[in-house]
Specification:
Blueprint (H helix, E strand, L loop, with lengths): L2 H13 L6 H29 L7 H31 L1
Length: 89
């Protein structure tokens, strides 16, 4: 469904909502919109850092990816070991 048609459908549905429920519906839509905007802002801020990797060669990028994977595995093992030690106490 095209966005313009979907908006029309939403407006028609809103007209069918009892007046006593309008404030609740408004708040829900408003919160949803703000949340969506915040997600978009977070995505934009995160993507700013993606450009920092543009100057890496393919080999450097591959090594970096391997290091990240290794460090995550090590951190995961350490957390599991810490949990095992805590279980003993």
């Amino acid at each position: 469904m095209k966005p313009s048609r979907l908006r029309d459908e939403l407006i028609e549905e809103i007209y069918l909502i009892p007046d006593t429920e309008l404030a609740q519906i408004y708040q829900m839509i408003h919160d949803f919109r703000l949340s969506s905007e915040k997600r978009q802002d977070n995505l934009k801020n995160t993507l700013k850092f993606a450009g920092n990797w543009d100057d890496l060669t393919e080999e450097q990028f591959t090594k970096l990816s391997a290091q990240i994977t290794l460090r995550r595995q090590q951190a995961s093992r350490e957390r599991r070991n810490d949990e095992s030690i805590a279980d003993l106490h």
